[in-house]
Design goal:
Radius of gyration: 35 Å
Helix content: 25-40%
Mean pLDDT: 77
Number of domains: 3
Shape: flat
Transmembrane segments: 229-249, 254-272, 278-296
Number of strands: 24
Distance between the termini: 73 Å
Keywords: Membrane, Transmembrane, Transmembrane helix
Largest sheet: 10 strands, mixed
Low-confidence stretches: 165-176, 218-231, 294-307, 319-335
Length: 565
């Protein structure tokens, strides 16, 4: 087994016999292979090299990747992991250095995985983008390989005594090899007094090499021995004044005279000691009162997101004979039956609405069959847009029972155009969020963090085995299970019926879908051909138009999938 010997230090000393000796501390490292296994995630990009009749070929590279190792079983010494041999990814497409993250220990290491084997390579469809002849996206796969490590032993050699003044120390070391540093640190270092040196990977892997000693000055520590009790109130007043400025500067212009007053009082503190202490107490009370008013004022813009729980009446549905209810369309078969659902919800001004809507039972099955019969593959943004357009077109005449509910509410309350839109969106926001998947609801099947973590929650709602991971508007209204796509398609269909200028905005970058509506409302908007489409989050309860999470507010990552006008 390969061994590497490095000299750590050489020190001269005088022995008990009064003669000079050389103490040589050497490090002996024995090579060890640690095999790892984990989930490789990252991003890819590429250029089209061939255009076929049924498919296009791209030459791509992986420019960002990391390896997640979750369990102790993902590491084993000198033993290779077995992998499937029929789906191996070319390793030359991988970056030079992979970031290995130990999830169970919450630590990360930038290291080289030697002889990596990548298998079960899968792209994330919602993050796949094609722009002209370029392709971008994210992926997951399995990976295994090994990391070279060393079992370290430190040995001390005593050479001497030194007889001549001009001595030459010779150390017997037949196994010493000469390596050139790559400049990449391994993370190990040795500190001695004010000096430190680091270990680097060599350009001849898997060896390492120690760098030169580097001087590091110790930080200067200053102390303040002043103990004048009379200036303590001034020090506290200055801190409170600084915090006071940060808290209320946008809304309270009188902070500047107060700041000047604090400065003058601080100067005169030795002469006005008792007066200054009284002023300090008054400033403290003023600060607390102003901070309270500032918090009350800022709370008006706070958008609460309570946990939604349906009442018992909202969770139940009734199946009625068609002739027991109002006839919705004259050409309906009287033998068909209706699904009747009751909803109660509030808008942003705490106005309560309630009522029943109906769905034709046959329409639910036909809507699901239409979706399952769509012969489209969800592998590009244009295909996604085509899928949601077809779903909307198929269901737009099947929502008459819901339109009847909204029309009756509008007639009773005489709502404006904006208030009517808020009533409709709050109706959808009030329905508890559910994740819609095209596979089983088992969290172990999914590598992306959001899906996996959401399914692990005890109150998670999931609707699995739904084609494209979408519920149609009729399906959503029937089972009340909808994610962002299902909600925006339903709202887009409703607002198109009521002749609103509305759009569905999609983001492959954020894996999210939101509504855009052309109404005179203040807030964050998406500008398209001189028209402002106010962004409206549909999955968060009581979320007003124009308010979007800062994590998703970069408009460059959004695009319009559907537009009604």
């Amino acid at each position: 087994m390969d061994k590497i010997i490095n000299i750590i230090s050489e020190d001269s000393f005088t022995g008990a016999d009064g003669k000079e000796y050389i103490r040589v501390i050497s490090e002996i490292k024995t090579q060890r292979k640690t095999y790892v296994r984990g989930i490789l995630t990252g991003k890819y990009r590429g250029n089209q090299i061939n255009e076929g009749e049924f498919y296009n070929e791209f030459d791509f590279e992986i420019y960002e990747a990391s390896v997640n190792c979750t369990f102790p079983q993902d590491f084993q010494k000198n033993k290779i992991f077995s992998v499937p041999s029929n789906n191996i990814f070319p390793v030359e497409k991988l970056p030079t250095t992979l970031l290995v993250q130990l999830i169970t220990q919450n630590t990360s290491f930038g290291i080289n995985i030697i002889e990596p084997i990548v298998y079960d390579f899968k792209t994330i469809r919602k993050l796949h983008q094609t722009e002209g002849e370029e392709v971008f996206g994210s992926f997951t796969s399995g990976i295994t390989g090994y990391i070279l490590d060393y079992e370290r032993e430190e040995v001390i050699h005593i050479n001497g005594p030194i007889v001549e003044s001009n001595y030459t120390t010779t150390i017997q070391n037949d196994n010493i090899q000469t390596f050139e540093s790559s400049g990449i640190k391994t993370g190990k270092f040795i500190r001695k007094d004010n000096y430190i040196k680091f270990e680097f990977y060599s350009k001849q892997p898997p060896s390492t090499i120690w760098g030169e000693w580097i001087y590091q000055s110790k930080p200067k520590i200053s102390s303040n021995t002043s103990g004048c009790w009379s200036v303590i109130p001034g020090f506290i007043a200055v801190i409170l004044g600084f915090l006071f400025i940060i808290a209320i500067l946008p809304s309270m212009l009188y902070i500047f005279p107060i700041g000047i007053a604090i400065f003058l009082i601080n100067i005169l503190a030795p002469y006005l000691k008792w007066f200054f202490r009284v002023i300090g107490i008054l400033l403290l009370l003023l600060f607390i009162g102003s901070l309270g008013r500032s918090l009350v004022h800022s709370s008006r813009n706070f958008n609460p997101k309570p946990i939604i729980v349906d009442s018992q009446n909202e969770q139940n549905s009734d199946t009625l004979a068609f002739n027991e209810t109002e006839v919705i369309e004259n050409n309906r078969n009287l033998s068909e039956k209706l699904i009747k659902r009751y909803r109660i919800w509030k808008d942003y001004e705490n106005n309560q609405y309630e009522g029943y809507y109906t769905l034709v039972e046959k329409d639910i099955y036909e809507s699901k069959k239409f979706k399952n019969d769509l012969h489209l593959r969800l592998n590009s943004v244009s295909t996604y847009d085509q899928i949601i357009y077809n779903i909307k077109e198929n269901d737009k005449y099947k929502l008459q029972g819901l339109y009847h509910l909204f029309d009756s509410i509008n007639s009773k309350n005489q709502l404006s155009r904006i208030k009517f839109a808020e009533m409709i969106v709050s109706f959808v926001q009030d329905i508890p969020y559910a994740i819609i998947l095209d596979n089983d609801c088992n969290p172990n099947l999914y590598d992306d963090r959001f899906t996996h973590n959401y399914l692990l929650q005890p109150d998670a709602i999931c609707d699995g085995y739904q084609k494209f991971g979408i519920n149609t508007p009729v399906e959503f209204l029937a089972n009340l299970k909808g994610d962002c796509d299902s909600r925006t398609i339903l709202l887009y269909t409703i607002f198109s019926h009521y002749d609103y200028d509305v759009a569905i905005l999609s983001s492959e970058f954020y894996s999210h879908s939101i509504l855009g509506i052309n109404l005179p409302i203040n807030g964050l908007s998406y500008v398209y051909r001189s028209q402002n489409y106010i962004l409206w989050e549909t999955t968060a309860p009581n979320c007003k138009p124009g308010i979007i999470s800062n994590q998703m507010s970069n408009l460059n990552n959004w695009r319009i999938s559907l537009k009604s006008k």
